[in-house]
Amino acid sequence: MNSDTGSQGSKKPLRVYHGGQSAYAPATQNKPTRASHTGAPTTGPKIKYPDPMRPQKAQSPTPTSQPMQRPTPRTQASLPNSSIKHVKRPLGTGDEIEDDEVIELHDTMHTEQAQPKAKSKSNKRYSMPRSRPAVGSASATRPGTQKEIPEVTGDTWRIIPLGGVEEIGMNMTVIENKDDIFVIDAGFRFKEEATPGVDYILPNTKYLEERKHKIRALFITHGHLDHIGALPYIIEKLGMPPVYTRNLTSLMLKKRQAEFPNIPPLNFVLIQGNEKLIIGNTKVQFYGVTHSIPDSMGIIIDTPYGWITTPGDFKLDHKDGIPTEEEETNYQLFDGKNVLLLLGESTNVENPGFSTPESVVHENLDEIVRTMTGRMIMGMFASHAFRIAKVIEACEKYGKKVVIEGRSMKNNVDIMIQAGVLKVQKGTIISSQEMAHHAPDKIVVLATGAQGDEFAALMRMATKQHKYVILSERDTVLLSSSIIPGNEKAVQKIKDNIARLGARIIHYRTSDVFIHATGHANRGEIEWLHKKLRPKFFMPMHGPHYFLKMHAELAYNLGMPKENVIVPDDCSILEIQDGGTKFVKLPVKAPDNVVMVDGFTVGDIQDVVLRDRQILAEDGIFVVVAMMNAHNGRLIKSPDIISRGSVYLRESQELLREIRTLVRTTIEQAAYQMGPHSIDYIKDITSDTLGKFIFQETAKRPIIIPVVLLV
Predict the structure, then answer these.
(1) Does residue 229 sit in the same domain as residue 260?
(2) 572 and 660 in one domain?
(3) Is 229 left (phi over 0), alpha (psi -120 to 50) or beta?
(4) In which element (H, E) is residue 297 found?
(5) Domain boundary residue, one of 459, 480, 507
């Protein structure tokens, strides 16, 4: 907005700003008083305006008083009404784009960044629950307040977890020396309750962007989205470094990159076995790990003082708590080696003992496919590549046909066939249209949507929206996946819908046999890894802060000194100094405002935008449109009231009449003897007064948007 509200030097077209203010936030704009010595609006005590319908006594000015000056907030007095232009402003910005005859209902809360408002008690109910400072919050890094980060010098090695240490997902870690930077993974996390309307949340890569000339490699440990999801959004900002990964992961990245045709082709370097490379001035080695997806790998960075290693997401294939020979072979390269620092995942550190081996799940699914009667629909993660492959092999063994439902499932099956992980006989996989030509007990449907995703294949079946798969009492639905925290209600909804259709449900929690196994190590497997590697220093990662603390306690119990363990936050800067003898956490952090993908927009979304979305969801919106005579300040007609998500006006006629009367009285009193009229001031008064009234009558605090049109 124009800040020179009292200037008469340069004349601009009269602009009427359509906007308002949230009912819960106090107005902060300067309000014009009845008398101003400067000609500009000033702040002061609330003025009781005279009733415009009652004649007022004339008052003669006293000799000592100065001539009264009318507030002149805008240079519009000399312009005819025909020059009025309605301004359309983009949401969330202060930019003004002239557009004749366009009215944009717009909340002036989006200008709060320029004019911080005083805190009020009523704001507390809208504070966003979060596990970390949100974008634009007081505790997050703000532009201009970021402390200078020293560059890496001498023999120091720096570790920065840009994500994945305060949440599940968004995994991305930086390892840096004075010459080289290595980035491990580039994942995202999905939206949460505090970020309505957001598609994905990405790590902040500003630290890397400022040092992209040092980036030598981007290592991708495996193909899950919490490790590869952010790559298409950030790879160009990092200078298109080469991507080091295994074959299956590279194919999954290529498939994902096809959705981003504007990005240049990725430069892949495929890793085979326990390959050793020299990248930049640093020796790097890789090793295989067991996870729920093939071609998962761990990474070793060789420093002069020992190895820095992370297995990424891992578990152990074992028999009764004893790792198999294959697992012993995978980790044999650590025998007798000096492990300087272990970066260890903490996802399942709460779970005691060893996790269920995937091989046990494969055996049980094989038996279920063999003995099933009727049609079988299996819901599972599309990324459970081993499990999908074993089910298809079992169907071939017992003469059954497989139907693949769900785009991500079809893509991953194609990728597995291309990578050689899965070999399918001709005719095993059929389309959903061909099911009618086969007996129901000869059909196995592999479907996405076991998490209750609204548009996934399994949900469409459960809600009778699928064109070819109609569930009945003869069907069995097997849910071979755990419930991701936060999806409990969605999963329960899909189970209810399936049960209403009469189908039998087999869930991993109710099954007599194991039909699902986690892809992450339990506490017993994590202890085995610590004992095998015997690291000098340790940084837990991959999990919320509580999980990381539990992992640190595990390390203490195994004899590691407390000063050798650091539990970081996102974007904490850790360093190994003094020839590998000190492990410290610097008092500064890398830029930590997370980046959000919101439709076609990628970047910081201010807290005010997210807060507005929460208020709209909870209390709705109230729009008041009033047409005011530009000469006398009287309303030409009764105000129009629009309510969405707040009050159902058809059943609240008495309340509607009271609101119209209140709006008319408020606007006319505010505009009384004011010329030229301060539209912003009138809107603020209307918003505050109406917000208080609505709260008293309904206990709701909707967003109030007054639109005042001068005619």
Answers:
(1) yes
(2) no
(3) alpha
(4) strand 297-303
(5) 507
Phi, psi of 338, rounded to the nearest 5 degrees: -95, 105
Could you tell me the CATH number of the domain that includes residue 582?
Answer: 3.60.15.10
Helix (H), strand (E) at residue 704:
strand 703-710
**How do residues 579-609 score in pLDDT, each as one tens digit?**
999 999 999 999 988 787 766 566 665 655 6
Tokens of 109: 């809360």
Same-domain pairing of 218 and 304: yes
If one counts every other C-beta atom within 10 angstroms of the C-beta of residue 113, the result is 13
* Biggest distance spanned by C-alpha atoms of the chain: 108
Local structure of 256: helix, strand or coil: helix
**103, pLDDT greater than 90:** no
Tokens of 550: 């539990």
Give the amino acid at 421. V
Rounded-to-integer distance, Cα 100 and Cα 233, Å: 37
Q: Quick check: 202 and 595 in contact, CB under 8 A?
A: yes
What pTM, to 2 d.p., does this model score? 0.71
Please give the backbone phi and psi of residue 501, each rounded to the nearest 5 degrees, phi first: -85, -5
Pairing status of strand 157-163 against strand 172-176? antiparallel
Domain count within the chain: 3
Closest alpha carbon to 606 in 278, 313, 40, 195: 195
| DSSP sequence for 639-679 | PEEEEESS--GGG-HHHHHHHHHHHHHHHHHHHTT-SS--H
The CA-atom distances, in angstroms, between 367 and each of 5, 77, 159, 269, 514 are 79, 85, 47, 40, 11
Residue found under tokens 């009285």: 665
Burial letters 649-681, b for 16+ CB under 10 A, else e: eeebeebeeebbebbbbbbbbbbbebebbbbbb
Which residue's entry shows tokens 């095998």?
Answer: 532
Indicate if the pLDDT at residue 286 is higher than 90. yes
Give the mean pLDDT of 666-670: 85
- CA dist 465 and 405 (Å) reads 13
Reported as a single tens digit per residue, the pLDDT across 28-81 is: 444 444 333 334 443 444 444 444 444 444 444 444 444 444 444 443 333 333
Whole-angstrom Cα distance, residue 322 to residue 17?
A: 71
Joined together, the tokens standing for residue 323 give 């790792």
- Peptide bond before residue 587 is cis, with ω within 30 degrees of 0: no
- In three state form, how does the secondary structure of 452-494 look? CCCCCHHHHHHCCCCCCCCCCCCCEEEECCCCCCCCHHHHHHH
Domain that holds residue 417: 359-507
Token pair of 311, please? 């297995």
Q: Which amino acid is at 258?
A: A
Q: Tell me: pLDDT of 570 over 60.
A: yes
Same domain? For 225 and 328 the reply is yes
Tell me which residue of 377, 449, 376, 442 sits closest to 406, measured CA to CA. 449
Q: Flag whether 136 is in a domain.
A: no
List the strands of the sheet with 443-447, edge to edge.
429-430, 401-405, 443-447, 376-379, 476-479, 504-507
Residue 225's H or E segment, with its range, is helix 225-228
Structure tokens at 358: 């995937």
- pLDDT at 283 > cutoff 70: yes
Give 546-607 as a 3 state SS string: HHHHHHHHHHHHCCCCHHHECCCCCCEEEEEECCCCEEEEEEEECCCCCEEEECCEEECCCH
